[in-house]
Amino acid sequence: MPEDRDWEAYKVPPTRTPVSERTTSVPNPVNYFQTAFSYVFDAPVTFVRELIERLQTKDKFYYYHQKFRRVPDLSECLEGDYLCYYEAEAQWRRDRMVDQQIVEIVQERLAACKQREGPNQFQNCAKEMELLAQVTKAFQDRYGDLGYHGNARTCLMKQKHRMMEERKAAQ
């Protein structure tokens, strides 16, 4: 490469980009449309959103899962106290759902152990099998034979009949 460069062939770019001059005095309609859209649609929505955000930041409430207080059992409700009946029924349904989830979790653990251990599953997964047997027996004792439309009252009657049978068998 020669030492003396031809500066006309390789010009240095300008340091500032020039601002284009408008050639017409007619206003651009896009600017009017953008301004109208901003004032008609965007500004009210933004205002309401900021208002809601300001109100919500005052009361920060982190909601992970709903916690219910324990209510009296159906056997502890007074006669004719329908609100207590309703709360006991709702509590029983929640307890049944929790027990169902416990059984499902234990089943998933047993299935994972069987998958992991392969041919040695009977030796290495004995604790999980025993735990599943205990959990399903407890679930069956409490909720078995109630059917889909079972409720707290029929469950309580089942428990009472089972206790009476155990007493007779003990005598």
TrEMBL record:
Keywords per UniProt: Electron transport, Membrane, Mitochondrion, Mitochondrion inner membrane, Respiratory chain, Transport
State one Pfam family annotation.
Answer: NDUFB10
Its localization reads: Mitochondrion inner membrane
Q: InterPro entries, per this entry? A: NADH_UbQ_OxRdtase_su10, NDUFB10
Return the GO cellular component terms, semicolon-separated.
mitochondrial inner membrane; respiratory chain complex I
What domain of life is recorded for the organism? Eukaryota
Q: Does the keyword Ion transport apply?
A: no
Q: How does it sit in the membrane?
A: Peripheral membrane protein
Describe the function of this protein: Accessory subunit that is involved in the functional assembly of the mitochondrial respiratory chain complex I. Complex I has an NADH dehydrogenase activity with ubiquinone as an immediate electron acceptor and mediates the transfer of electrons from NADH to the respiratory chain.
The family line of this record is:
Belongs to the complex I NDUFB10 subunit family.
Protein name in the entry: NADH dehydrogenase [ubiquinone] 1 beta subcomplex subunit 10
Gene for this chain: Ndufb10
